[in-house]
Amino acid sequence: MKRRKALKWTLIGVGSGVGALALGSAGAIGYFWTTSKLDTAGKVDFTNPLAVPPLAESTQDPSGARRFDLEIQSGAVAFKDGRETETWGVNGAFLGPTLRAKRGEEVAFAVRNSLDEGTSIHWHGMHLPAVMDGGPHQEVAPGGDWAPQWMINQPAATLWYHPHPHGRTGNHVYRGLAGMFIVDDDESDGLNLPKTYGVDDVPMIVQDRKLDGDNQFDDNGSFMSMQGLLGDQVFVNGTLGPYLDVSTRLVRLRLLNGSVSRLYNFGFDDDRPFSLIATDGGLLPSASETDRLQLSPGERAEIVVGFEPGETAVLRSYPADEGYSGPLGRVNGADDTLDICEFRAAESLTDTTAIPETMGAAPDLADTEPAEERSFSLSGFNQINGESMDLQRIDFGVREGSVEVWEVANADGFLHNFHVHDVQFQVLDVDGEEPPARLRGWKDTVQLVPQRKYRLAMRFTDYTDPNLPYMYHCHILAHEDAGMMGQFVVLGEGESIGQVPAVDSAHSHG
Description:
Elements: H1 14-22, H2 26-35, E1 48-49, E2 59-60, E3 66-80, E4 83-90, E5 99-102, E6 106-113, E7 122-124, E8 145-146, E9 149-151, E10 157-162, H3 169-175, E11 179-184, H4 186-189, E12 201-209, E13 233-236, E14 239-240, E15 242-248, E16 250-257, E17 264-268, E18 274-279, E19 282-290, E20 293-295, E21 300-306, E22 312-317, H5 328-331, E23 338-350, E24 372-379, E25 383-384, E26 396-399, E27 403-410, E28 416-420, E29 426-430, E30 445-448, E31 453-459, E32 465-473, H6 477-482, E33 485-491
Parallel strand pairs: 1-15, 3-6, 5-11, 12-16, 15-23, 24-27, 26-33
Antiparallel strand pairs: 2-3, 3-4, 6-8, 6-9, 7-10, 10-11, 12-13, 13-14, 16-21, 17-20, 17-22, 18-19, 18-21, 22-23, 24-25, 27-31, 28-30, 28-32, 29-31, 32-33
């Protein structure tokens, strides 16, 4: 299919925005301030059944590994008004199937890139060798193939996959390349939690987008936004205005903030409580009850919510509880209220599941003496510790088997977060205080509230490579693409930092 135009990827920063406002009148500034707040509460017509991504088919290859065939391709979808939007997807026109495997399984992938530009698939949250990670060093050329393979060796968790080409990740995710990767294990299988996929165990890939007058994705950065693009319409699993018919009293929602920039503060329109049962890296030791759950881009959480027969409830994103300082929140979506999905309970509900008193293993690194402590400061649109990403620069090496503590801080007044490849980390404290409940489980991505210090403990195990690095970066994708990213290698005994193989990339940072 011939594309209408190449999508741009832009940041419209405060400098140009303030200059423009300074030329206007006080009335114009007031109008801009008022209209910068988006509120769709009670205004969404929930007329489309929520699409549930199909479970990806797999076969057993000669080595005994479970093989998945994935094709990255272009397509078109009529999201609204019967007019098609040009899209990208995996094994389909938009988004991708849900991958599912069990701890202890060897998995193999045959990835085919049928696009007319290079891309990759990164397995976000997965513990695996660096050469299989799918980062910017594993870009697949147009018409090319990639065959990663590894043993699943981590607890049950809701992970996801998305592209990670250098400088173009946001563009590729925005076009539609993303999907869930669910890891199971014997312990989680033995719990009486809701677990019937698509019925009482429902994936929810939440993403915002803008559509232009021709129903094409508009990726122009939002005016004065420090985060790039904030869409005015919310898709769940690629569905606009979705509703889900509920047939069970308890429903487990696997929430993924798959947006490129936007923060969501999830809750229900009637403020009903729900139970947080899992974070990025898997099940919590015990459930935590709340009525709000804030997730920044890339973060996942599993919640269980209860319904009564015949009732209707709407999942909503409320204004942010934290994440911004000063007036910058308004132009970065912090004051927005967004209706996301309607749940329609049947007149009779089955009631066979429950939330166990104990579930997963608690993070256990707090009392471990770290081999190294490091500090990271994220600032502007493209810097960590004053430097932008360089694909040929390895920032440091960590020793296999060691525990390190990284202190990470957001030096700005707007949103950043922090994602580390290969490991799940424990948030030890936030400014010396115990982290909130939503940060007490295993995490691979954490929101950074401005001017607070987050101490993260992580253990590096199993895989070493002195030449091929893993990434750490802000998961606001406009920031990542602008250069807010670094890379590290895991070293075996006696190994030293090597040399990164040359990467042919169309994007570089000055």
